[in-house]
Amino acid sequence: MVDTPSITMKDIARDLGVSVATVSRALKDSPRISVEKREEIKRYAREHYFSPNIIAESLRKSKVQPIKIIGVIIPQLSHFYFSSILSGIEEEASARGYRLMVAQSRENYEDEVKICQAFSESKVCGIIVSQAKNTTKYDHFQRLLKHGVPVVFYDRICTGVNASRVVVDDYMGAYAAVTHLIDTGCRHIAFYGTTLTMEIGKNRYNGYRDALLKHGMRPDDLLIRNCDNRADAEAITPDIMSLATPPDAFFAVNDDTAIGILYSCKRMGYRVPEDISICGFTNGERAVACEPMLTTVEQRGTQVGEEAANILIDQVEGALPKDRVEKRVVRTRLIIRGTTK
Amino acid sequence: MVDTPSITMKDIARDLGVSVATVSRALKDSPRISVEKREEIKRYAREHYFSPNIIAESLRKSKVQPIKIIGVIIPQLSHFYFSSILSGIEEEASARGYRLMVAQSRENYEDEVKICQAFSESKVCGIIVSQAKNTTKYDHFQRLLKHGVPVVFYDRICTGVNASRVVVDDYMGAYAAVTHLIDTGCRHIAFYGTTLTMEIGKNRYNGYRDALLKHGMRPDDLLIRNCDNRADAEAITPDIMSLATPPDAFFAVNDDTAIGILYSCKRMGYRVPEDISICGFTNGERAVACEPMLTTVEQRGTQVGEEAANILIDQVEGALPKDRVEKRVVRTRLIIRGTTK
């Protein structure tokens, strides 16, 4: 092997005025970089004899800087939305030279505390977390922040801690979905969700309510139900359909619930979307497996993960002040399919 | 929350003019500190509401015993089956006091090599991996084994490396599924899968073939297709249904493909399962979202992950010899739902 001191990705990034992550992505032909930019970077790399010597490269890195580990706490790995967020975190972290330590809280406060503890022992440079459903004390997060370990929350926001966060625009997602239902002629739109307990449920409810008000309709208590899973949706939908004025549309806070409504309505003989329109929220595997395919609000977990990793790494590297509370909102996207007109 | 700035051991040391080590020892009642000094320090700590900082304490502990980290390589985190395996690995590892470092190969050999390298630098005690689809050289795994780092493969087995492995019983899963189709009256059973490239596909094909042979039927080349995703299944199913003797049943190597067959048949006016029976393989979220719900072979990812973590930790701790090649098979389970009679 000829051992010419070769140009590094860092050199290329500096010379072309882009980030190292961009160079790395371009060289891997990532579709996230425009074709022109990719070509420019690849040409420059070629012209400067850039050769990605995998082993040498990482050995070099490891001598210069200690291994940087980000701790990630996931409530449940088998949940599609969370695993897509983890995928986004991993993508961004590995592009920027970080590694991930991953643990599940299993929706359990005690486990969450232990994980924070364990991550701290492992000298993680920061933590990305979505809190467990039953977490109401926040000392474990406060302690990390006090010791200068940045914490970034995603999805579920911990209102008791003033730290950076990434959420999807639940309010606008719901607003857009309900507006679409109204625009396609629906006049009695039911809401299935968890209105009170979680921030997410509240924001989606508010989006629903405001879309109605904006179009001169009023939320009807009879059409607002506390329901966030398929089994419950299948159980209560026959009841709501027997009202004097039954709904002609449903907006559900997740796809699982929407699919419960869908099959419940079909069993009762209603046609979807001719008689009843349905819109969900998530856009996971289920949404395209049901018939008709589900109109839904895409939550874009990968983007949420990427943003969270970006904030954290920027704080670790000083591109953002460590004590800066960065709040980012990932925009949702309404995917119109067969369950709405 | 009252946020009194709490006193640290450092503060106590400074205030009393002793070293931090002395304070720490005194608070632990170490006989290396005189009784008088101990009492003085403890009294001061009490009076100033000193509460032992858990994180600092465990940092100290971590010096005593090194943190044990398992490296996990996942081809794609957003794939349901892989995230359920990761969940099982995490569950078992955390119960046994290990932490996980997780990375995605994104089905890319070069990334896989880099990750092995990175894990190795991070001093992982072992690696659990499902190889990337395009991996055909195995030096990176061999190197780890040579350095005494145990490697356990899951799902996709690397035939080029003699290491421990956990797979599901693909052969028996397929055999049971096809036997069920035969038992319910099907006589022309098509197979959609990848027969040649991957071990998994081969085993599932063999199970299909042997179930036919066992029941006095012969595999028919016209009914065996190379197809492992929904789009392709929707594209080729009208063609196979136009054969002189079309199939009356389909066995597909995954749920996604099975759902493509299902909707393709329904669009052509066939009733499922009255005219056509369909069986998939996976049992993910999709399988219960389609209509009718899918009969499928459950792959039990969580169990695969748990077994893999168990083997690795047993090898690390010496309960299994490090050079022992342990092969475990997780049994599949046929879940009969609405797409078969």
From TrEMBL, chains A, B:
Cross-referenced Gene3D superfamilies: 3.40.50.2300, lambda repressor-like DNA-binding domains
Pfam families attached to this UniProt entry: LacI, Peripla_BP_3
Domain HTH lacI-type as annotated: residue spans: 7-61
UniProt keywords, alphabetically: DNA-binding, Transcription, Transcription regulation
Superkingdom, natural source: Bacteria
InterPro entries cross-referenced by the UniProt entry: HTH_LacI, LacI/GalR-like_sensor, Lambda_DNA-bd_dom_sf, Peripla_BP_I
Record GO terms (molecular function): DNA-binding transcription factor activity; transcription cis-regulatory region binding
PROSITE patterns linked: HTH_LACI_2
Name of the protein in its database record: Transcriptional regulator, LacI family
